[in-house]
Design brief:
Strand content: under 5%
Number of strands: 0
Order of helices and strands: HHHHH
Radius of gyration: 20 Å
Helix content: over 70%
């Protein structure tokens, strides 16, 4: 039996729809409300963690001059790859219904910090692995 990619996606969509429509008990709903109240500054804490990690990774990459080569192209490609990875993460968070924010500031803070983290991570892997240079 040969598998078609569309059949696999259809099966995955069916599984997600069954899981999403499962009934939620009242006790579980109360627990979720309590968890939301406890984590008042959760988005800011996660964003600060991503910013701190990206600052460390950018320091690791840029504390010495970059190797001689086509640096502009390498930086652009690493930025595009990091942005694509973060877009994939945002899409997955949106599918899991975890990508919602009460204000535009939280949305921009979280999104920019995640994008900066993945760009820094890709640059760190690109320049420190030595395979690509």
């Amino acid at each position: 039996m040969s598998w078609n990619i569309f059949e696999i996606l259809e099966i995955a969509a069916d599984v997600f729809s069954v899981v999403a429509t499962a009934p939620v008990k009242d006790s579980e709903a109360r627990i979720r409300k309590k968890d939301k109240k406890k984590d008042k500054y959760f988005t800011e804490k996660v964003s600060a963690g991503f910013i701190l990690a990206s600052a460390v990774l950018f320091f690791v990459v840029f504390h010495k001059p970059l190797p001689i080569g086509d640096q502009t192209t390498a930086l652009i490609v690493a930025s595009l790859i990091g942005t694509a990875i973060s877009a994939l993460l945002f899409f997955l968070l949106n599918l899991m219904e975890l990508y919602y924010f009460k204000s535009i500031f939280k949305l921009l803070l979280f999104s920019c910090s995640v994008i900066a983290f993945f760009i820094a991570l890709v640059m760190c892997v690109y320049y420190k692995s030595g395979v690509f240079i």
